[in-house]
Amino acid sequence: MIARKNVVIPAIAATFLTAWTFTGSFVKGLESIFNASLTSASELFNIFLIIALVTALLGALRALGADRRMVEPFRLVMRSGHSAFWVLAFVTYAISLFFWPTPAVPLMGAILLPAAIAAGLPPIAAALAIAVAGQGMALSSDYVIQVAPGLSAKAANVSTDAVADKAMVLSLITGGVALFLGYLMTRSQYREPDALLLERWEAGETEAAAPVARRSFIPGLPLRRRILQPAPVPATTTTAEGDASVAVLDPGPGSGSGSGASAGSVTVPAPRNGDGPASGTRNRGLGRSGGEPGDAMAAAALKSLNGGDLPGDDCPKRSKAFAAIIPLALVGLVGYMMLGKFTDAVPEVVGGDAAALVGGVTVALLLAAAVARDAGNALQACADHIVDGLVFAVRAMGVVIPIAGFFFIGNADFAGKIMSLGDGAKAPGFLFESVTHMEGAIPDSRYVVGFGVLLIGMITGLDGSGFAGLPLTGSLAGTLGPTSGVDPALLAAIGQMGCVWSGGGVLIAWSSLLAVAGFARVPVMDLVRRSFLPVVAGLVVATVAGLIIF
């Protein structure tokens, strides 16, 4: 990972060697390769499924043309990529603090993330903001639900409130440093607000494949009207084969009139015999799969040529209705969960139940959008959207499965199943056993103890569970605190920071970070690499600050 290489082969080889060495059976070593991937796939499938469902919903909204209309109101607060970064972080933190990040990430992916992309925020920066604020800041303190502080406090034999208060301070310091560094590291990639950024992000085009030409905007003009601005008069030429084509110019600032197509032009073949546009090439790599043009001006040119409509133009009322229904439904969902949190009017819904509720609402909205678009073809359209979502989730995140399998073999809960040890055999916990061997090597120095507990927490989080290591770090805090002169509650909070920031979904890819990367449409390993330096720097600063303050 440090060398920026894919680690699938090393992970598979290490899984095989670990199982072979422990069991002494070459055959069981081979079996463990498959069992490890199967185990990790079953553990991570809920994340894959929520990615697929929200992607399917966005596909249905795109067919209606409601996706672009839906992001227009958010431009009031997301006027640039800079403001979008901090708005994403704040909203994600606020929701995740009450309901954990699992239901918060789909809400961000469905509503705010497209608006942030259109505002000029690069997808990797958006993913970083969501991950640090949700999986990091909110989950590491867990100040409202208090599952994490409760586990740490019980193991350390201290009060839950003492751990929760210190964990909140440490999480804010860590998150503040990580967000600030992440913003500085990505700000050079921010672009001017442009509708084409959203177009190309939805089409899955990369920055290298589709460089964005800066477009001049008319101040105050709504985003949807900018997309549908009339294209320049197309110049029709005839090729050597006698086929007509249309060259649509993509003017930038200060571009003047001239002859011929500029370097930013997009060549769109004219329709043949009324059968629609012929398949051709675009010299900037802006095309989408299926021959759909990626450039909005090219789409407008095709519309004028063959009498077709852009998505949503044939049903503007339904498009506008769903642009309002989707945000209102999801905001209502948050209101329902908050009602259960603070009152007895409805049952409380948190964690996995909240994620399931978000998934169910997403499917219901998907069905409604498919029916609204074309009731006669809704059955097939809905199935196609779900398949597209599943294909996207597996294609983007499937590489993580064998990597996660290797780290799952270090967890006693999964090692027995992976290595086929049988029901009666005691499964080893390689990660936790390695930590217990390190315990005696930690000197009684105040700062060495603090960073030792932090490092141990980060190691225990490598299995992808942010809470599994909390009893261990809590017990270490209770043991090492009195001898080193450090408050055990503070050590428990430091260990909680290491466990959750590592395993909760910021520093490893086989966790809920998959969902963040999936919605942002960025490689999850790239997101891990981009998050590593800001988060580790934040943890170091927070640990030192905690030892000084408390």
Layout of secondary structure:
Blueprint: H1 8-23, H2 26-64, H3 66-71, H4 81-99, H5 101-118, H6 123-141, H7 147-156, H8 160-186, H9 195-202, H10 223-227, E1 235-238, E2 244-248, E3 266-269, H11 296-306, H12 316-342, H13 351-373, H14 378-397, H15 400-408, H16 412-418, H17 430-439, H18 446-460, H19 470-484, H20 488-506, H21 513-520, H22 524-549
Antiparallel strand pairs: 1-2, 2-3
Helix pairs in contact: 1-2, 1-15, 2-13, 2-14, 2-15, 2-21, 4-5, 4-6, 5-6, 5-9, 5-13, 5-21, 6-8, 6-20, 6-21, 6-22, 7-8, 7-19, 7-20, 8-20, 8-22, 12-13, 13-14, 18-19, 18-20, 18-22, 19-20, 20-22
What report would you give on this structure?
The chain has 22 helices and three strands. The protein is 65% helix and 2% strand. The model is unreliable at 208-310 (pLDDT under 50). Strands 1-2-3 form a three-stranded antiparallel sheet, covered by helices on one side. The chain has helices at 8-23, 26-64, 66-71, 81-99, 101-118, 123-141, 147-156, 160-186, 195-202, 223-227, 296-306, 316-342, 351-373, 378-397, 400-408, 412-418, 430-439, 446-460, 470-484, 488-506, 513-520, 524-549, and strands at 235-238, 244-248, 266-269. Helix 7 packs across helix 19 (470-484) and helix 18 runs antiparallel to helix 19. The chain has 550 residues and is an all-alpha fold.
